[in-house]
Amino acid sequence: MTGHRAGQARRTGRPVARLAARLVAVVLVVWGAATVGFFSLRLIPGDPVNVLIGLGSVSERVRDQIREDWGLADPLVVQYLRYLGRLLQGDLGTSYRMQHPVADVIGQQLAPTVQLMVLAIAFALLLACGSALLGRDTRTASVAGLLELVAVSAPTFWIGLVLIGVFGFGLGWFPVVATVGFGALVLPAVTLSIPVAGIISQVLRQGLDDAEALPFVATVRARGASSTRLLLRHTLRHAAASSVTLTGYLVGSLLGGSVLVETVFARPGLGRVALNAIVDRDVPVVLGIIVLAAVVFSLVNLLVDLVADRLDPRLAAEQAHA
Amino acid sequence: MSLLAAARSRTARTRRVKRMPTPALWAAAGFLLLLALSVVLPGLFTAADPVRTDIGAALLAPGPGHPFGTDQAGRDVLARVIYGSRYSLAIGFGATLIALVAGLVIGSLAGLMRRLGDGVLSRAIEIVMAFPEFLLALIVIAIIGPGELSLLVAVAIAVIPAYARVARVHTLVVKRAGYVEAARTLGVSPTRTVLRHVLPNTLGPLLVMAIMGVGTAITAAAGLSFLGLGPKPPTPEWGLILSEGRNYLATAWWIAVFPGVVITATVIATSILGRHVQALSLGRQR
Amino acid sequence: MRIRARSTSWLRATAAVIATVALVSGCSVTSPNTAADANTLTYAINGGTLSGGKMDIHSSAFQATALVMRNSFDSLVYEKADGSFVPWLATSWQISDDGLHYTFDLRHDVTFHDGEPFNAEAVKANFEHVVAPETASADAASLIGYAETGGFYAGTAVVDKYTVRVDFNRPYAPFLQAVSTAKLGFYSPATLRDNAAQLPAGGPGISVGTGPYVLTEYTPDQSIVFTANKDYNWAPEGSTHEGAPAIEKLVFRILPESSVRTGALTSGQAQIASDITPNTVGQIGDDFSIENVTMPGLPYTLFLNEAHGVFADENVRRAFALGVDIGPAVASIYQGQAKRAWSILSPATPNSYDPSLEDSWTFDPDQANALLDASGWTKRDSDGYRTKDGARLSARWLAYTPVSDANASLGDVVQSDLRKLGFEIVRDNLEIAQYYEQFNARDYDISDWSFPSVDADVLRAHLHSGGYKNGSSIVDPVVDSLLDDAVATSDPAERAALYRQLQQWNAIHVAMVPITVPTAITAYSKIIKNLSFDLYGQPLFYAASLTTTR
């Protein structure tokens, strides 16, 4: 229903209505993700009470008490509605394992993950720009292509361990054990950035090729703009517009990659929290992460849409249509 | 990765065709052929048993008897890599095939449906896409338990939405081009329309995406193996070998380096082939 | 053309940025074998099991918890290397003649990190916390002798402000040893009152004890920071050091990858690393001291579940034990760092080990085959595995991830050797929650672990019909009465005789297959002086100090 209206609004092109429809879509996606998450996590075999008590045996009386305390005795629908009700108030529930509010558990680990991701994105863009520009020369294009393929095909944990061995311990350039400071962040961020850089670079290269083939480039050239100016202003902008659709994917791949990177480098962060929560069957925490990921994904998509509109309305219209 | 292919195939129409250098293509094809052969007839490449341990011959460096050396339990690393190709390729190709078919069905259905149906389906795709792929795979494994098959299913489910999204976009393109309307007016049956017009146009870009996706699936499976959620030991799956050898890097590098090289080579070979297929399909469209 | 020129300058800029980053951060790296700060020690530990609510000494079933938290938690008595006990938080103690009452006289000068006084009320509150159903304690409750269905522990009574009495329903000899462990350490009564629910998660202001170090920072899966307790003046009797500890700050860095722990040490980024695995010990040079302590308690053992599937048949259990060539496997995998185990008790367990079991059985595939034939597993299926009545001879081995490199290799050998007999082993490495689920239901054929303990009573949890870690599902009145008798006996010789009978019982019955005696390998820089190790091979930092030179 709403999706349908959102589509209509896009086509009519009134900015306010369009924004409103997109915001509704954000809420819809988050609600959908929370719902899918809630019910699919119930499919995990096993009694949540066992998660709460761990190893050892307790009497049925204690088990019933635990079920009562955590509201696990109610019908699933009641539990779901109660969950939604709390979610609406911004309450993500309480962790089974930590007995802490989920919002706190996630909040405490947000900073290290954001630091890691921001630096990783910066490295990825740097590497990608380098590789994309390397790839523009026909003589070095195959080298760039090869580097990109190696980057996307080498398993993350593997890159991490090799970097630790070579740059952490062998050359001693970056501390591995230290937990604070920029130096400690470099190797994990590089590890996380490598597969992402490979992808951005491929797309960027494609985008540059495509953009150069467009009629406007000739026009701009005819106006006497230098190649550098052309590259930076027009081509990159156009190329960027075509690759902004990647961002949703990138958010996901950064969060996924952070599970492995944080494990290899023994760093705290959302990736670890997500992995531990799944391994420990800490359902409220997993749900909290799902909701957070959905919010970030939707907002980033929204932002991308808005930026794309600004950068290249024609392209945006085409994308909206598609 | 999958979206990358999506972006690429979307822009493909305006793209100049760059032919891959032929030697690279031959090398890639040759390598993949060898891999295929190792799946069917592993005994052709090695006489060693990939599972049988020989504790007296543990951690031997690469040499005449063991070209890739032996691992911590004295198993021949070459044999493990060769016998492992069937598991790793099954996971890579199997997961991709499932995702391709499911994505094709869901995506073209969404594209062909009226506004309401399309709205619901594409919103559903978007919701599942909001789950980071790796998290989705972890949840699927939590539900069905670890193992080779779970790994395949988990990796497949994680990437279905991406395929569905691309399939929908291309179906819409076909729909807008007027074929479907025209066919309907001419009284052509819907099934025939789908088979004649929709499928050929969506399958092409999806296939390119799939060929690229095989490598990503193998890499993702390796990541899950690293977390201990992969195949049951002593399955010689590449990701598992890599993961089991990771703490021997400084003392017995060959355990993890050779499977790592083979994984990377496989991904590169499939990618080169994928680009060639893409170039061919563009040439045909012209 | 001009674009290309531009692109090279881009590359140059990128290279410059990377080089700068490398330089800037490179400066902060410490050089090998020196502490970053004169009075800070960085300790690389495995600690992979600590997150997810395993920081509570009273409820965690993991030994790792006790080993880390020992720094913040003292005990009533201290067990010396020879197995004797000396005063610690208790100045003296009396055991009633019937063995039912333990009375402890406490020190008057002890305070918790939060300023609360340590007294009889505090002891009572802690023991009550251990046995409270909400705590869901497995290990500490077992140590104190508590069981929901009538155990030994009856209760704790405050005699006067500094005198406390613990009462038992039946004589409970291991109690003194139990109160010497960190798992029966003492939380501040204030934290028990206000933070009971947060104890499993742990952290500063929550994990509050009386120990020489105060837990001041905790980042799950990354690090635990302990700061010297300046007021500390209650070291165990006979300690070589008195007053506050010399090293001001201990940074426990959690590094689950064994190669990373070793690298951290050898590159000088950590001054001490524990849980060094046999495959990385060779990388550590002569610049470091290596402490290799044989762990007491239950060796690394495979539990054959008698209540499930093929292992109900004693012949199959014996065939399993005879069909695996354990000796060479242990020698190769542990590279001489750990010995083969022959008994279900480690030779390092005081007053209990039965050395007569050494070399008492050898790898004998022929006899293993004969036993399997005798039990009717005579047909073979298309994969070469034995079958009986159409069912394959197969056993499922349950473990939880991550599986250590050594255990994984051992699993490979067991699987490969038994395959030759036509015996299939399926290894299921599950996520821990799923493992608990199946373990508690005893839904497996094989499981494996080791459990360090200085008291042979560790066998009670593993062999008694009501034991919470009775992995082989043993239900045998003879075993139960031997265990009960041993617990009720305080005479060391009598106890040793009873435990020898239990070890002999397993040698015949083969409910468990001992594989290797675990060792705790710790490597440390020579700048650390006076480092001592407890009976579990864990470093004790209280008396240690740092020198600036080697």
From TrEMBL, chain A:
The chain crosses the membrane at residues 20-41, 114-134, 146-167, 173-200, 239-265, 285-304. The keyword Secreted does not apply. It is found in: Cell membrane. Residues 110-308 form the ABC transmembrane type-1 domain. Belongs to the binding-protein-dependent transport system permease family. Keywords: Cell membrane, Membrane, Transmembrane, Transmembrane helix, Transport. One of its GO terms (molecular function) is dipeptide transmembrane transporter activity. It is a multi-pass membrane protein. SUPFAM superfamilies: MetI-like. This is ABC transporter permease.
UniProtKB/TrEMBL annotation, chain C:
Residues 85-450 form the Solute-binding protein family domain. Coiled coil: none annotated. The lineage of its organism: Bacteria, Bacillati, Actinomycetota, Actinomycetes, Micrococcales. One of its GO terms (biological process) is peptide transport. GO terms for cellular component: ATP-binding cassette (ABC) transporter complex; periplasmic space. This is ABC transporter substrate-binding protein. One of its GO terms (molecular function) is peptide transmembrane transporter activity. Belongs to the bacterial solute-binding protein 5 family. The keyword Cytoplasm does not apply. It comes from the Bacteria. Keywords: Signal, Transport. InterPro entries: Peptide/Ni-bd, SBP_5, SBP_5_dom. Residues 1-35 form the signal peptide. SUPFAM superfamilies: Periplasmic binding protein-like II.
